[in-house]
Structures are given as C-alpha cells and as structure tokens.
C-alpha cells in the first residue's frame, strides 16, 4: 500500500509542477484564442493542464485537472460514471497542500471527485490580490489592507464571470461532470468563496473557506449576509469554515462572527438545508497546508459516490463543531 501511494504521489507532484512547455515550445508561445482553452495533456492517467485566455478580463489562467482514480478518459458511453467537481483557488500550491497531505494520511487522491486547480499563468501571487477581492467602498489602500506593491483590488466580479462563463463550461465540456460543484479558497481565496456564495449561489453546492479574509472592506461579506438570508429561505449547501489556532485572533473572530450570522439567520427560518461545519485546527498557523487537507476531507468524505442524486450529508469528524443543525 505504501509503494502504491508513493508512486501516486510522484505522479501528483509531476502533474502539479510540470512545466507548461511540454509541446516543445515555451508556454508564452503557445497559440491561444481569446475565450478558448488549449489542453496540454500529460503522460499521466490522472492529470491534465489546460491554458485558458479569458475574453472577459484578458488574463491567462492555468487550469490543472486531477481526475479520480479509475476515471477512463476513453469512455464515451452515455451511461458512463459522472463525477462532482471541486474548484480550488491558488491552483498548484493548494492542490499540492491538500492532495499530498491526503496521500500521506492514506486518503484517496481524489475520492470520486474531479479536482480543478486554478491560478493566473503569470505572477499569480500578485494577480490573486485583484481577482479574489470585491470592490471596496472607496479606493483607499488602507481600507483594502493590501500589502505595498500589490496590484489594484476589486476584480472579484470579473473573475466570478470567468469561472461561470469560461472555466466551468470548459471543464463540463471536456470531462464527465455532474451539477454538484464545490469551491475551496484560502485567505483572500476564502474571501472570494464567500463572495461567490452570496453573489452566485446557484453556481456551487459546496464551499470551503480556510482562514478566510472576511475582514475585507469593513466586513462587507457579513453585512451583505443579512439581505442575502431574506432571499434564501432554502439553501441546501455544505459550508466548511476553518481557522488555525495559532492565527491572528482578529481574523478568527471575524470568521466566527460570519458563522454566527449564518446560524442566526438559520434560527429565524432561513437557509433550510444548510449544513455548516466550523473547525479550529490546533497548532496550525496561516500558511499551514493542513487546513487544505481538512477542507477536502470535510466536503468529500471517502465514501462519496459521485452520483448526482442528492448532496450527501458530510459526517462530522472529531474536533469539528457542526453549526445550525437541521
């Protein structure tokens, strides 16, 4: 068993970090059409890399797809197995953190889920500060609390359109997917996941926010939740929130405030069907890879079938606190 995991781990690492010039040309020289995706297949049974140039915001994105064990890329039958998808922000790094942690713990690489990592193809560490942040009330960098040297903020609306109108349709055309979609983001990525939940609630069924930067713009997400709740008496979604016990207490307080607001709305008769899990992970800080593995395991337990019949209830694990019991 250990040898099989080791071989799979090597395949995962190669898929995540293989250079894009596999065709013999530099990635920058690869022909691309606006709004079109070009696939660069790897010599692996589980991994694919697509490069998509967005017609919406003009940016180019690496879309790294990890297929479940047993996925047959040659199957064309109409009754072939279809799978849920999990979209992971911050692309290769987040996939590396969550999937390799799972391998080392004896957990399947992808429990009958197609995992899609997304990152800007050029200078992602700078671009994420734009793509993952909603507009603030004003243009002040003090309000936004972005570090010096980072790009302008406020690109979340356009990036949400990129996901909805370009990346997700490309994945659905290329792979055998179901309508059960999840999204996972960390820090500013977690902020974007909350934003996507409130702005496009029909797009995803599962949401994971690890160490989310919900302090953004005077806690605008928490303010927005009040009106959102009134519009959603039914909300059959899985939501996972986590924070490391060694993280900034202010960030943790805002996350717990958001969880409390969701549950307050639930107690008032909104969000019927909501399944909310909140976890504090002992001994972990902001850059730890452990929360990403916990998010994967929380949203997709090992017995997930992949059948698009209903959203299975995710079992609680020791150390988790399940909010808003139905």
Task: Please explain how this structure is put together.
The chain has helices at 2-17, 91-104, 124-131, 141-144, 156-174, 188-199, 216-230, 249-267, 290-299, and strands at residues 37-41, 47-53, 60-66, 83-89, 114-120, 177-186, 206-210, 238-244, 275-281, 320-323. The chain is of the alpha/beta class and 326 residues long. The chain has a single domain (2-323), classed as Alpha/Beta hydrolase fold, catalytic domain (Rossmann fold). Helix 1 packs antiparallel against helix 2 and helix 7 runs parallel beside helix 8. Residues 1-33, 41-45, 100-110, 139-144 and 303-321 have low confidence and may be disordered.
Write the layout of secondary structure elements.
Elements: H1 2-17, E1 37-41, E2 47-53, E3 60-66, E4 83-89, H2 91-104, E5 114-120, H3 124-131, H4 141-144, H5 156-174, E6 177-186, H6 188-199, E7 206-210, H7 216-230, E8 238-244, H8 249-267, E9 275-281, H9 290-299, E10 320-323
Parallel strand pairs: 4-5, 4-6, 6-7, 7-8, 8-9
Antiparallel strand pairs: 1-2, 2-3, 3-5, 9-10
């Amino acid at each position: 068993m250990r040898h099989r995991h080791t071989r799979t781990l090597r395949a995962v690492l190669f898929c995540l970090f293989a250079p894009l010039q596999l065709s013999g040309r530099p990635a920058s020289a690869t022909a691309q059409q606006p709004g079109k995706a070009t696939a660069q297949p790897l010599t692996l049974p589980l991994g694919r890399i697509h490069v998509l140039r967005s017609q919406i915001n003009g940016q180019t994105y690496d879309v790294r797809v990890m297929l479940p064990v047993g996925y047959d890329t040659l199957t064309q039958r109409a009754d072939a197995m279809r799978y849920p998808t999990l979209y992971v922000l911050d692309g290769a790094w987040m996939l590396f953190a969550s999937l390799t942690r799972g391998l080392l713990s004896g957990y399947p690489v992808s429990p009958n889920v197609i995992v899609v990592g997304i990152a800007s193809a050029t200078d992602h560490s700078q671009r994420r500060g734009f793509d993952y942040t909603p507009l603030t009330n004003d243009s002040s960098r003090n309000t936004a609390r972005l570090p010096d040297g980072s790009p302008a903020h406020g690109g979340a609306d356009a990036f949400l359109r990129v996901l909805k109108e370009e990346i997700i349709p490309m994945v659905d055309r290329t792979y055998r997917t179901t309508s059960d979609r999840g999204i996972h983001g960390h820090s500013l990525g977690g902020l974007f996941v909350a934003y996507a939940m409130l702005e496009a609630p029909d797009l995803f069924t599962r949401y994971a926010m690890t160490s989310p930067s919900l302090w953004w713009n005077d806690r605008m997400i928490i303010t927005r939740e009040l009106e959102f709740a009134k519009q959603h008496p039914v909300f059959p979604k899985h939501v996972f929130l986590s924070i490391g016990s060694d993280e900034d207490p202010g960030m943790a307080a805002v996350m717990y405030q958001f969880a409390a607001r969701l549950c307050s709305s639930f107690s008032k008769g909104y969000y019927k069907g909501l399944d909310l899990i909140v976890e504090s992970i002992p001994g972990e800080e902001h850059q730890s890879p452990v929360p990403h593995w916990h998010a994967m395991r929380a949203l997709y337990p090992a017995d997930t079938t992949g059948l698009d019949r209903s959203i299975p209830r995710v079992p609680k694990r020791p150390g988790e606190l399940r909010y808003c019991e139905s």
